[in-house]
Amino acid sequence: MFIGQEQFVYKIQPRDLLHISVVSPDLRVTSFYNIQQTPSQAVSPGSMYLNGYIVNDSGMVNIPVIGKVKVKDQTLSEIQLNIEKIVREQVSDATVVVKLLSYRVTVLGEVRNPGIHYMYNERFTLLEALGMAGDLSEYGSRKNLKLMRPKNGGTEIVHLDLTDENLLKSPYFYLKPNDVVYVAPMKAKIDRNNLTLTATLFAGLSALLLLINFIKSN
Fold first, then answer.
1. Closest to 15 (Cα-Cα) out of 71, 69, 64, 66
2. Looking at residue 116, which CATH number applies to its domain?
3. From CA 181, how far away is CA 164, in angstroms rounded?
4. Global confidence as pTM
């Protein structure tokens, strides 16, 4: 079955970081429901961590005035409707905004810009992650990628092949928060590195033999 964008929707898990805000025409009322922050705090991953809600191991977030709300295994839309229903019991014209802040993946190996990349969207594909990493380097193997995904207290490791047309149907085509993608080098680079190492060792050995012969001759 093809997993299209309309079919894949991420469901919140423990340790995810959420932005939750309550908005209404009466700012004095809704301010009690929101974490106070300055404009300068809202631009970096560090400030988002300080001003967001971390989902605890029980799948709950603790919101001012409202208290603990279960969000695990729910989509952002479901969480929004649930919190909005609670808030409107007290503020009839309130609107709730919920966003996922912790959608980050790490791309390593043979890419032009390895590192941690953030995506502020519910859907993040493998190809988008590689694009944000500057695409594969000239030695990156399109047939040998590994996806490492935190799962049930451990790590699931999956081999991926960009040349496989079935990749688009794979459940791993869409990435999840905290996924790690590793692009292995092609055999040509490994052979080149081995050749360079062999040449270096040979040059060193030749120099050593010349030194020994020089010492013997004197």
1. 71
2. 3.10.560.10
3. 17
4. 0.70
